[in-house]
Amino acid sequence: MRQHIAIFIGDAIEKILSGKKTMESRFSLGRIIPYGVVAKDDIILLKQSGGDIIGKTIVDNVLYYDHLKPQSIAILRKEYCEELCASDEFWQKKAKSNYATLIFLKKPERFVTPIKFRKKDRRPWVVLDDRKMPPT
């Protein structure tokens, strides 16, 4: 079991914590994390871009897709749009992606006290090792 920090913009974390958003997706042109790294029962810490870690969720299942084509992205959109709470703009931005990681989420939990975590790069996903794990 690993811990991850996922960085979000907008209201995605609130949608996860409320139970409205039950899946997270990461689409990319190249094979970058969390592709191939996140697994069932991993913990995802929820960090607002430029802010603190305010909650966590557990990975219930993961699906990986590679060599995506516009038709396959359209199928993913039709199948999972509601669970992802994804807008038309989101799908337009992801239309040329080659890889997708679809993460089914369970047991979202808001922290009573946010966790400070200094991150000085632009990575939208961080895999933590034992030396860097904040308490949960």
Index terms:
136 residues; alpha+beta; 6-stranded mixed β-sheet; globular
Can you give a write-up of this model?
It is a single chain. By secondary structure, this protein is of the alpha+beta class. 21% of the residues lie in helices and 38% in strands. It is globular, with a radius of gyration of 14 Å. It has one domain (3-112): Roll (Archaeosine Trna-guanine Transglycosylase, Chain: A, domain 4). The chain has three helices and six strands, in the order βαβββααββ. A six-stranded mixed β-sheet has the order 2-5-4-3-1-6.
The number of E-state strands comes to: 6
What is the CATH third-level topology name? Archaeosine Trna-guanine Transglycosylase, Chain: A, domain 4
Q: Give the averaged pLDDT, no decimals.
A: 93
Distance between the termini: 14 Å
H and E string: EHEEEHHEE
Please, how many domains? 1
Query: Level of helix content?
Result: 10-25%
Spatial order of the strands in the main sheet?
A: 2-5-4-3-1-6
Count of helical regions: 3
SSE layout:
Layout: E1 3-8, H1 12-18, E2 23-28, E3 43-48, E4 53-65, H2 70-84, H3 88-93, E5 99-115, E6 125-128
Parallel strand pairs: 1-3
Antiparallel strand pairs: 1-6, 2-5, 3-4, 4-5
Short description:
The chain has 136 residues and is an alpha+beta fold.
